Amino acid sequence: YQAKRDRTGVEVYESKRDSNTPDRLGLLGDLRRALDAGDVELHYQPKVRFDGQVVGLEALVRWVHPDRGRVPPDEFIAIAESSGLMPYLTEYVLESALGQVARWRSQGLFVPVAVNVSPRDVHTPGFAGAVAARLARHGVPAGALQLEITEHVLLEDPQRAADTLAGLTGHGVKMSLDDFGTGYSSLVHLRRLPVSELKIDRSFVARLAIDTEDAEIVRCTIDLAHSLGLVVVAEGVEDDETWERLRDLSCDAVQGWLVAAAMPPHEATSWLLARGETGWHRPPPAPALEP
Ligand code: C2E
Ligand code: MG
Ligand code: MG
Ligand code: MG
To answer: The whole model's pTM is what?
Structure first.
């Protein structure tokens, strides 16, 4: 048996993996070709504070398959992760996102961008240095890049993960803990991971306004994060009531369809420009509930 490698050195097929159905292998090959061809896009979703300040944009990968149509990121990211294509996908996303950050900066839009990285990336030797080199190549300061990680980075080799994350923060890259509250959460991880931001998973935020237990979980998470000096972002905010509740709980920022869905680059640019030249301006005020 010999693993095939494409021109990027990415392992594309391992015959010993029986779980790779023909369908998955087909998608994997298509994804690799789409990345080679530049057919994978990034959309950008704003993170805003309650005073309207835009604190960043999250880059979310979008792939429209020629025959199958839009493939959900969760689906093809799982395929990329289990095949060894993930580092290539992450390079692609970082390259694309940093190019966009540089263009926005040249337009006077100094807004940081967050990129999701998978546990695999954090365990790739030399990842921190490669990110720093990429930043330099684009002339983008490290403070304009944020990396979103999940607690899963600690599953495989906690020491290596810690080293990589220390390397990244040492370069000035900000780390954010994504999907907090799902699956593998433990308070210990909050202490171990050098993150400056915590994102409360959408599953808790969605029912915040109607479920008292979820509301209590969110309240405790915000208080805990604040006591550790972290900025708290709630994801998946879809309505005014949830916005109001989060504001009352002293959450720092929100992300969600109430503010904006993830937008293609040109739309995100218009969105940012409509809110000021500097990227530090208020979105349209949330509908006032008080007279
Ligand atoms: P995530 O990082 O937690 O991203 C948030 C997800 O919630 C996105 O789904 C976003 O479109 C969706 N969302 C945002 N606002 C709302 C809302 O108000 N309501 C609802 N119902 N959903 C909302 P998406 O784009 O399908 O991404 C799914 C996951 O895929 C992401 O979750 C992230 O873990 C992963 N992902 C996306 N892009 C990348 C990438 O470039 N690299 C890696 N490694 N993972 C990525
Ligand atoms: Mg994320
Ligand atoms: Mg998230
Ligand atoms: Mg999530």
So the answer is: 0.89
Predicted confidence (pLDDT) per residue in 92-104, tens digit: 999 999 999 999 9
Exposed e or buried b per residue across 145-166, where buried means at least 16 C-beta atoms within 10 angstroms of its C-beta: bbbbbbbbbbeeeeeebbebbe
Of 42, 60, 71, best ligand 1 pocket probe by most atoms within 8 Å of the beta carbon: 60
Residues 255, 168, 170: CA angle, nearest 5 degrees: 115
Distance, CA 199 to ligand 3 centroid (Å)? 6
Question: For residue 238, what are its two tokens?
Answer: 């879809």
- Choose one of 202, 246, 255, 257 to mutate for the ligand 1 pocket test, by most ligand atoms within 8 angstroms of C-beta: 202
ipTM of the complex in this document: 0.96
- Residues touching ligand 1 (Cβ under 6 Å) are 45, 60-61, 72-74, 77, 93, 116-118, 148, 178-179, 202, 235-238, 255-257, 262
3-state helix, strand, coil in the chain (%, to 5): 45, 20, 35
